[in-house]
């Protein structure tokens, strides 16, 4: 049976980074773009309808965040994640990446340390460094001790303890679910993270932007806040942008129960004049959380089938490449080390020989060397062509 997600939506010549920046990024427009972490699917109709309705009013002036926006978010997390959020805990933010930058400035001083767990989303590195703070790396371990599967990553909690014990360590940036390795952290792992943070008085900034994007056949995502105590130093970053494919609208939220930490974050935003509300961002945010549930459920079923197609195709048709089924996100982490190419050669192979544009693993840290990140948020026909091109190039 055909799915609405099978229908291609042309994104070329729409100023799309994913499509219209191909020449600048890959040196050619003749690559299939499966890199930037947005999807090639139309957003939920309810979101588009709400944006159109707002556009009918011809004045697009300075805008407040309506109470209904907060209530839509509170209801979403209560019903979907069993997380009860108080209205006063929420601080609206101009995106998760600016929030990570602001957190580095709010909770660590210049020259102090911020722990990250590579291979990880590149702005984790740049946010720390550009704010004048110091990156402390706690690399993930690419092996499941229960199965020996090198495609399944785990945290090195003993090493995390050592990192947290450093006298300059102030913050842990947690990516949950993890981009790019696709892990949905277990309750046991998250409880250990909280215990380490308590012992060493770390502020945990938990980026949970992919929290809604977990597969039905894999473990459910656990919001770290549901395991935290009232005295834990926790900041949770969330957004509807990945869930409903509208990251260009650029609005997210921080949930910060502690009033002083909330005040510190707000002060950073205000110092940069960032708390501006875009009238369309506000409308899209609320419409996604209020009406996007059925669309999201259909999306995850489609993405699961895409994921399974890629796992099977890679295993059967792409010698020298391995991939594990992610537990969350629409991103897959391809292990290409057996191809015997260095990172420059690997990029040339995929771009010039295969005509496929992916994110090089090295951009996620040195532990990403030899890997590529594949975005499966696209019609199945696109993935079929991607696999076919790589197979032919091999």
From TrEMBL:
Tell me which EC number(s) this protein carries: 4.4.1.13
Query: Which Gene3D superfamilies does its entry note?
Result: Aspartate Aminotransferase, domain 1, Type I PLP-dependent aspartate aminotransferase-like (Major domain)
Q: Which Pfam families match?
A: Aminotran_1_2
Q: What EC class does the entry list?
A: lyase
Q: Which GO molecular function, any one, fits this protein according to its record? A: transaminase activity
Domain annotation Aminotransferase class I/classII large: ranges: 38-390
Cofactor or coenzyme needed: pyridoxal 5'-phosphate
| Bilayer-spanning residue ranges | none
Do you know which PANTHER family this protein is assigned to? PROTEIN MALY
Q: What is this protein called?
A: cysteine-S-conjugate beta-lyase
Q: Which organism is it from?
A: Marinobacter maroccanus
């Amino acid at each position: 049976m055909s799915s609405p997600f099978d229908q291609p939506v042309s994104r070329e010549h729409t100023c799309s980074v994913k499509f219209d920046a191909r020449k600048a990024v890959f040196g050619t427009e003749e690559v299939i773009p499966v890199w930037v972490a947005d999807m090639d699917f139309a957003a939920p109709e309810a979101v588009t309808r709400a944006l159109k309705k707002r556009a009918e009013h011809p004045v697009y002036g300075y805008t407040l965040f309506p109470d209904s926006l907060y209530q839509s978010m509170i209801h979403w997390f209560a019903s979907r994640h069993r997380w009860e959020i108080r209205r006063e805990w929420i601080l609206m933010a101009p995106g998760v990446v600016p929030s990570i930058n602001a957190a580095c400035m709010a909770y660590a001083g210049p020259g102090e340390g911020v722990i990250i767990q590579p291979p990880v989303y590149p702005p984790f590195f740049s946010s720390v460094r550009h704010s004048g703070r110091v990156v402390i790396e706690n690399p993930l371990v690419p092996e499941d001790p229960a199965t020996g599967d090198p495609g399944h990553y785990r945290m090195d909690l003993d090493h995390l303890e050592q990192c947290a014990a450093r006298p300059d360590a102030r913050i842990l940036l947690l990516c949950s679910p993890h981009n790019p390795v696709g892990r949905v952290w277990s309750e046991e792992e998250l409880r250990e993270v909280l215990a380490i943070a308590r012992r060493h008085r770390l502020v945990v900034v938990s980026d949970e932007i992919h929290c809604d994007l977990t597969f039905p056949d894999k473990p459910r995502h656990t919001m770290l806040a549901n395991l935290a105590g009232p005295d834990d130093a926790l900041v949770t970053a969330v957004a509807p942008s990945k869930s409903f494919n509208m990251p260009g609208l650029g609005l997210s939220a921080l949930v910060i129960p502690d009033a002083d930490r909330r005040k510190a974050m707000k002060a950073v935003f205000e110092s940069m004049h960032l708390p501006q509300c875009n009238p369309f961002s506000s409308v899209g945010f609320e419409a996604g959380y209020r009406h996007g549930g059925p669309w999201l459920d259909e999306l995850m079923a489609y993405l699961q089938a895409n994921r399974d197609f890629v796992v099977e195709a890679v295993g059967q048709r792409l010698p020298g490449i391995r991939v594990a089924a992610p537990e969350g996100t629409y991103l897959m982490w391809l292990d290409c080390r057996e191809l015997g190419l260095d990172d420059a050669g690997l990029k040339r192979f995929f771009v010039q020989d295969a005509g496929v544009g992916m994110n090089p693993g090295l951009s996620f840290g040195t532990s990403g060397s030899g890997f590529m990140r594949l975005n499966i948020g696209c019609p199945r026909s696109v993935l079929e062509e991607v696999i076919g091109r790589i197979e032919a190039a091999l």
